[in-house]
Design brief:
The chain is α+β, with helices and mostly antiparallel strands and 414 residues long. Helix content is 33%, strand content 31%.
């Protein structure tokens, strides 16, 4: 039996997520989903190949068992402060007799971009056309079929560190799988949670993870800027740990159960009793103190992004507002703080346009990236195309076919 399947793998600092999906008439059906703790990554980079491979095995084992099938090729998310992007403009001449632009001309245009000079330790991760021009006429989304003598494009080019990509590749292969495609995590998250109107009117996607915060800026239905920032949820947890003198696990629990991103969002100011290390005994702190610790780091993060937005010159074009996603966005008061810092409306983004199966299990901000990895990157040279995979069902302990055959034989004899 053959199915149109795709698998996504989100390598996060705190967890590794794997999903197996099938294309159906209703959309994308989630067949299998698995999560495992991540101990081999730091700020989006592989720090321990063996531990990362073990986490990949565990997550995909759960996903495969739940789906009842095995898959070898994966779309893998890429993040980290090594990610950079640039805008590049190039053109090709149309040489065929009737001057009609074909897919071959677009391929030549993309091939030309791959020849640009970049640092020797970098590789091109994505080439995403922002706008096409035919004979200097701009504003064209798809030039195929049009007539002209000159085809030009403005491209968003994403670069990644070669060693970082190689370490991801080694980890995946050591786990027994093959990397089908590398997809930048903020782009995957954007595909997952932004609707067409938000991409058109202008929006900023902020994916707050454990080790990094991924940013993608959209306008006129195209991506205009990407950035990966090394300030995220783990830094907030560490601030709590250092300020209160408690262990990391206790600090993480405090953040999730009692934390707020800003004091104005506090519903009820009450005392929290926490277990101190060693002979310190129980510690009593007010919610306001915990919130003050969290707020400093979250405000710093949003200010860094706001400055980045201003430097791109796109601040005035963001009409749809801010979309927060990732596990860090679940912090209470996060949207209110974002609205205050950016001066724009904000909302929490969850994966959309999913079909049946286990889709409800990943309809959460913390799974925005892995949900986008199975959708691919529209218009990019890297996209998660659906592949025909021979599905091998796991052998059942009971041979159902043989069992029913014996029953039939019994009744035939009777």
């Amino acid at each position: 039996m053959k199915k149109n399947l795709v698998a996504g793998l989100d390598l996060g600092t705190t967890k590794v997520c794997a999903v197996i999906a099938e294309q159906s008439e209703s959309g994308i059906d989630i067949l299998g989903f698995g999560v495992s703790p991540s101990e081999g990554l730091n700020r989006g980079l592989v720090a321990n190949i063996a531990k990362t491979a073990d986490a990949i095995k565990e997550a995909l084992s759960v996903a495969s068992n739940r789906a009842g099938l095995e898959i070898k090729e994966l779309n893998v998310g890429v993040a980290g402060e090594h990610i950079t992007s640039l805008r590049h403009r190039n053109y090709v001449t149309i040489s065929n007799p009737d001057r009609e632009i074909t897919q071959a001309d677009l391929d030549r245009l993309k091939a030309d971009v791959k020849t640009i000079r970049i640092p020797s330790d970098r590789q091109i991760l994505h080439i995403i056309p922002e706008e096409f021009f035919v004979d200097y006429q701009g504003g064209i989304e798809n030039p195929i079929g049009m007539c002209g003598s000159r085809l030009e494009a403005v491209n968003h080019v994403v670069l990644a560190s070669i060693p970082a990509i190689q370490n991801i590749k080694k980890s995946v292969e050591r786990a027994g799988y093959i990397v089908k495609d590398y997809i930048l995590q903020p782009i995957a998250s954007s595909v997952s949670v932004l609707d067409e109107n938000e991409q058109d009117l202008g929006s900023v996607l902020i994916d707050i993870g454990g080790g990094t915060t991924d940013v993608a800026i959209y306008h006129d239905k195209t991506i205009k800027h990407t950035k990966v920032i090394g300030v995220a949820g783990n830094q907030v947890t560490n601030d709590i740990r250092e300020s209160l003198g408690i262990v990391t696990a206790e600090a993480e629990t405090l953040k999730k159960e009692h934390g707020y991103a800003m004091e104005e969002a506090i519903i009820k100011d009450e005392d929290i009793f926490i277990k101190g290390p060693g002979a310190r005994g129980t510690i009593k702190i007010p919610v306001t103190l915990l919130t003050q610790i969290i707020s400093v780091r979250m405000r710093e993060l949003f200010t860094i992004i706001d400055n980045e937005l201003r430097q791109t010159g796109l601040k005035g074009k963001i009409k749809a507002g801010i979309v927060l996603t990732g596990g860090g966005s679940l912090l209470r008061g996060c949207t209110e703080l974002a609205e205050e810092v950016f001066g724009l409306p904000a909302r929490i983004g969850v994966p959309i346009q999913l079909g049946a199966g286990l889709s409800n299990e990943i309809e959460s901000p913390e799974y925005a990236t892995v949900a986008g990895l199975i959708k691919g990157v529209p218009g990019s040279t890297s996209s998660a195309n659906w592949i025909d995979v021979e599905v091998k069902k796991e052998k059942s302990k009971i041979k159902v076919g043989s069992f029913f055959k014996k029953i039939q034989e019994f009744f035939d004899e009777l």
